[in-house]
Amino acid sequence: MADMTLQELVPQVAAVLGGVCNRGIISDGGSVLVIDAGIGVGEAQPLRAAAEERVKQGYLSLFNTHSHGDHVFGNSVFADCPIIAQDAVRTVLAEKGEDQLAGWQQNPQMAGLIGAARLTLPTVTFAERMTLHLGDLEVQLIRVGPAHSEGDAVAWLPGPRVLFAGDILFNTIVPAMPPGGDSAGWVRALEYLETLGVAQVVPGHGPIQPPTAVGQLRSWIIALRTRVAECVVSGLDRDATIARVGPQMQNNLPRGREERLPNAVGQVFDDISRERRTAQKDG
Ligand SMILES: [Zn+2]
To answer: How many whole angstroms from 283 Cα to the centroid of ligand 1?
Structure first.
């Protein structure tokens, strides 16, 4: 694992790079908000130490962008702080978190990254949005899911126009599209983020790139959905759709992590099949 590095985006706002997922530290007025804890103790402890250096007369809190283990299993290092998330993050973790943690610990490399972490649920949840005031800095936590997962939310700083997008944005790599997400909702989420007027955006995974990356991922998901829909309409089953669309998408950017394509195509097949059943019922 690469060492943790802080990349200051504007004064008091840093992207934290070098972990399995990208994280963030926002501070002002002596209070600090950490964006995502990382996969386990090894990532979360230096993150907390860097955050503690900035806590003065205020408070330290943690925001989980969504429920996936690479973002939340480090929560136990912040168990004495308010841990904030969208309602569904707590619900999903309460139902499935222990199984996910046990499953990931079967993998020796994952187990090493997770360390002695225990499942730690968010303690402050919101339905649509919540605003934190760190000194003069306003941080809006905004629900944008279901998209990549059921409880996706982003952290938007309207002052410096900085966005922490969580896994709504993957840069230069094929996005993970696991069960529980919704590709149509993901397109809507990206469309919404494009309306914000973002100056700098931190993706959940991949390098920091200009905000045009948001539109590039939207176009990629729309292209994937279009190709899968053509297969569904022509009567191909799930496996045949994966066999046809996977290689087609190999030729599209992004090129990294192409081994995710079969799962992504399968997930979009399930989404579009469900949308068609709903439309037929309603029609
Ligand atoms: Zn994720």
So the answer is: 34
